[in-house]
Design a protein that fits this description.
The complex is a heterodimer of chains A (487) and B (326). With 487 residues, chain A is α+β, with helices and mostly antiparallel strands. Chain A is 39% helix and 18% strand. In chain A, the strands form 5 sheets. A 5-stranded antiparallel β-sheet of chain A has the order 3-2-1-15-16, with helices on one face. Chain A has a 4-stranded mixed β-sheet with strand order 8-7-6-11, covered by helices on one side. In chain A, a hairpin with a 5-residue loop joins strand 15 and strand 16. Chain B has a 5-stranded parallel β-sheet, with helices on both faces. Chain B has a two-stranded antiparallel sheet with strand order 4-8. In chain B, strands 6-7 form a two-stranded antiparallel sheet. Classes of the chains: A alpha+beta (487), B alpha/beta (326). At the A-B interface, strand 3, helix 1, helix 7 and strand 9 of A face helix 1, helix 6 and helix 9 of B.
Chain lengths: 487, 326
Amino acid sequence: MNKRITIDPITRLEGHGKIEIFLDDKGDVEKAFLQIPELRGFEQFAVGRPAEEMPRITPRICGVCPTAHHMASTKALDDLFHIEPTPTAKMIRELIYNAFQFEDHTLHFFFLGGPDFVVGPQAPAAERNILGVIGKAGLEAGKKVIRARREARDIITYLGGKVIHPVCGLPGGVSKGLDEEHRVQFLETAKFTIEFAQFALQIFDDVVLKNKEYVDVVVGDAYKIVTYYMGLVDENNKVNFYDGDIRVVDPEGKEFVKFKARDYLNHVSEHVEPWTYIKFPFLKNIGWKGFIEGKESGIYRVAPLARLNVSDGMATPLAQEHYERMYETLGGKPVHNTLAFHWARLIEALQAAESMVKLLENKDIIDPNIRNIPTETPDEGVGVVEAPRGTLFHHYKTDARGIITEANLIVATVNNAAAINMSIEKAAKAFIKGGKVSEGLLNMAEMAFRPYDPCHACGTHALPGDMPLIINIYNKDKELIKQLKRP
Amino acid sequence: MSTAKPKVAFYWCASCGGCEESIVDLAEDILKVVEAVDIVFWPVALDFKKKDVEAMEDGSIAVSFINGAIRLSEQEEMVKLLRKKSQLVVAHGSCSHLGGIPGLGNFWNKETIFRRAYQTTPSTDNPEGTVPLEKTEIDGKELYLPRFYDTVLSLDQVIDVDYYLPGCAPPRDLILNAITAILEGKLPAKGSVLSPNKSVCDECDRNETKPEKLSIKEIKRPWEVELDPEKCFLAQGVICMGPATRTGCGQRCIEANMPCRGCFGPTDQVYDQGAKFLSALASILDTNDEKEIEKIVETIVDPAGTFYRFSLPSSILRRRRMEAIK
């Protein structure tokens, strides 16, 4: 009988996950599983709802990234009702969306994933949190983080009504416009977010890139898996969070396919396993080959590193400089090193900040024409955005009155579900040998999933937090022989 | 050396994480809270485990804030454990208060939800008909998942609840007021909802344009008309749950020029939010002619899903009878 190691719960990501690691007779890792013990059924209880209510229902999939669902849903309504938003409405949506990318990415780096880096993978557990980050980076840094997030979120609150579950999206437009007074005020905020994003990248440079030990971990094999990548790109193949076509590159970085939102079913399929409630998307035209790396496997990754891998560059100049630097440092495109997600995330935050300034400097954004009223009969619509955690697909079918008859959702992190499992197993295999389990393992295993900033049905965000891990080691007679706790 | 700081726990059930986010949105004020209390359990943020809660003395937690609805067996187990260990339990947010958006699952059941998620969704490739199981065995290794219920429950349908913090998500000031009231021991009667006992209409800016006698000839959906940012939505013929909903939210949705959807639940005097709204709507329809009433009612889409958007599990309807659709 094999030994079993249970990590329950994992933290600083969606709350209801547990890892099971199985050892062979030598005490080496044979297999590892990340089980998601949660399901709510949005794709079924959407049936019967008026389509225009979906941007107010689907954000409840996730209270950390509600704006992603709100926007994907609103775009699905545009498609469903065969209507385009007015130019000003599109600008307002993009402003909200970039403000959201900025504050959510900032949250992840400083509260969730960043502490592993800023404080160090081998640092005491009690320091691997926002307080440890402040300790290393300074109290002024901490205040800046809080201020930057609060001001960016105030933009979403003003235009969206609520920052947790915004309400303003309608087919063909938005419900509320921007006036000159707020344009000026938010422009000040946006300029500050550029300054802040550069400051965050500077911290990453000082603390991570100038530390050889950390760089070795980043480029090392334990946290590397070779996969396809997917993300939205604009007409110039540059990174875009709000709109564009979906581009997939192969493990060598060559474009594999580029498709429009409406065609997603020709390219993406989902696999089911009996040991978890989550599904595993894969490239339909390659096929599901199991939890395997490489060009023959249909597994792909999404989210910051993936978006940078699939694109030909960033859409804004300051972010572009950092993009070039990242690839130069890490040896060219594509980068398969999972820890580089953290770097890519900060580069994206900078693009989001620059995009906000560009939008707010354009006075068209205060134009009062914010709605086109649909006139055509609704039938079917697909809306795709890049959520901070990955490509997000909303697909609705309705009757002639616009009542939902079918809904299909492929939600961001889900695209990474297979890759996350593989990353955990690979890290476990690299660090657990001969039955030796140590405190170091606890963090190393978690560092395998944290770069993805997972958000399986919920988001998470942290205040000061230690890694809540207990490892129980059983012998083959299922007797508890050792217990390790991380305080 | 133990401190005199009261112990506080946070937990989430079938939740989106928005209520967790609402705590983080206290921003600088969270630091004051952290100084005043000892957070002893918060899986999203801290490393304490179920085992640690089990090891605590019964009643040693001053207050547990529990958000999310009860959808799976693991959630029921956890809240029962926390009830045992806590002096006070606060239902935090619409899902634990009323059932919330996950409560819309009560128009369906496990079989229909599983069938959609794991079989009939167009992107799912599952010819073997695999579904998640409570117990799976792979190469001699056993893996377990909690049981998915047919019916979503609100928190007070599973444990005794002391107070309710309403909203999806509760706003900052309500949360701060609640925490302060708990710390100062100045709480209202047990079972209270911690928000004023008035309706959204009572505090809405648009109340001044709400005519004495509303008369609607036709219901309009928000997508099909220009929405006047200053006029009462009901006066525009747009369904707004204001009359049947408790205030305390600051009318955030209405400020963004969208109608209320009722996330705070009803006021104290109202037994069933959906029935209350139905009655309010009936009183403002401008006709006594039965045929005309029928015509107007035709323009109301998804009444059950709209009037009970957040409150289906805790309503008198509770859930749909599945035999009615077989």
